[in-house]
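Please think about what follows:
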Amino acid sequence: MLRDWIPIDDPFMLQTKVGMLTGIWTCVHVGGHFRQIGAVAQGVPLQEDPLGVWRLTLEQMQSGSPVADQLLTWTNLTGLLGLLLLVVLFAAAAPRFEYAQRVWPCFRLCGGFNMYQRTHMLWPLFYLVMIMHGTPRFYVWLFFPMACYVLDKLLLLQRQLYPAVLFSARLVGQDVLHLALEVPEGFSYHAGQYILLCWRGEWHPFTLTSAPEERLLSVHLRAPPEYDWCAALRRRVLMDAPKAANTSKLSGEPAPGTTVEYEPLALPSGTVSVPRSESRPKDDPKRANARQVDDPIVLQMARPEDAGDTVAIKMAGPFGPISSRVFEFSAVMLVGVGFDTTPVVSILRSVQMRAQRRAQILAATGGKGKADLFGAGDGRPSTAPSSDAMLMQMRETAAAQQGGSSRLTSVVGAPKASGSRPSGSGGGGAWSSDLAASDLVRHAIQVPGRIHLFWLVRSTAELQWCHSMLVGAAEGPAKAILDVTIFIAPEVDTTQLDPLPCRGEQRLHVGRPRWGAVFEAVKAEHPGCNVGVFLSGSNNVGAKLLKQARKRSDPPDAGSLGTSFCYFREHF
């Protein structure tokens, strides 16, 4: 597949690989030029040929010229200027520069994402220099990048932007900001996808930690003081906007757990968020309809968008791969690495919401217990009738009710495969014993039979930031199918670690995981299953998981007891 070679689902990885290739071929190109300049400088000076009788090449005419004279030509000067621009772009994007701007105050004043953005906005100047540097046939090499750029701009014009209306802002832990957003009209997404938030002209990506089945969108932002944009947004929503609206009584920095509720405000330029007034009750009926821009809580035509008590955020998306394939497997391995665990949180919350929906339907039909909710197979291949068998039985039951051939058969057509038929007694349209209501519910609302969660923690900060999110996502009826294993570094403090809700006891290991033993244990627990392996984390872990998934999968001729692993590298 194309995405196996080109990470089209991960724009950041795609940009990194394109940048690396650009740097490699630039070094080859510049190295060839300097080798040629050195060879020309060491050559024997030739007699000048002003009439062009001998038809000397440029290298022959410059033979024996000093290096400085050769560098002062128009072609080499524009090449050096383009090389300087590339060095600036690479320096602003390098991880070492991010560390340097945290240490040196001179870099901190203009560093961070602002430096990265400002330097990359020099790309028109770079292309202009390349046009002046290149030969008359340079347009051949410029055509394809410019065509991709124009196509990208045309697609961006069709991208729909939504106003990100805040429902609440809460400080979770010391430097984690949780934003709850209203779901815009027409917005839909899948678990594990991310959105782009724009505030003060800067766009930043954040993974959604909410489930598609929920009525609110939620994102968690790391907002320590060294993160300029996130730290400024944290101060805005928790301190500056509430103080300007006279709804905050804070005298200093907000403590963990501080929550500020917001409500929409319609302006001519769009919908923004303002802190909720204490005089308005939380159960205000207009609050329930806050998604409707046509019925705003407040309407002030002359109010500026950047007023002191307003928060104007825009949203675009969703982006990223669709993680709904998690629900295609009877057994799933979810691997989260450090701070990159937010997609796993979204997937677990979606599983919980689906399980709750199952429980509500089964409670109405008289089903109860784990066997009805998740099936007795416990992650093994399901023995329930297939969808074709269900369709066959629906036709037969309808025929029994009408006393003849079912009208449904003429509409739907003949079944594609034979299935388990009812016993033949009409029974007033009752289903046969092999097609219980619980089987229909499990077929309609897909939930994995077993989820194995593996969380790799490398620092205490990762543990403090992600643990509360995982606890909230794991709590619910689906904890009966959840196994949790945490691998921590030796220096991580686990004295305040509460166990995650799960099927049994949470397993805690100090050190790196032995993936070979992990895959063998999962394989022994799920014989004959197709196990989905989903990673949210670094490529180094992904390479190990892919290797073990291929190595531990049984060959296709293993029969019904053969176990296979399908690896998915989620690009978040």
About this structure: The first strand starts at residue 161 and ends at 163. The chain has 20 helices and 16 strands. Confidence is low (pLDDT under 50) at residues 279-305, 382-395, 401-435.
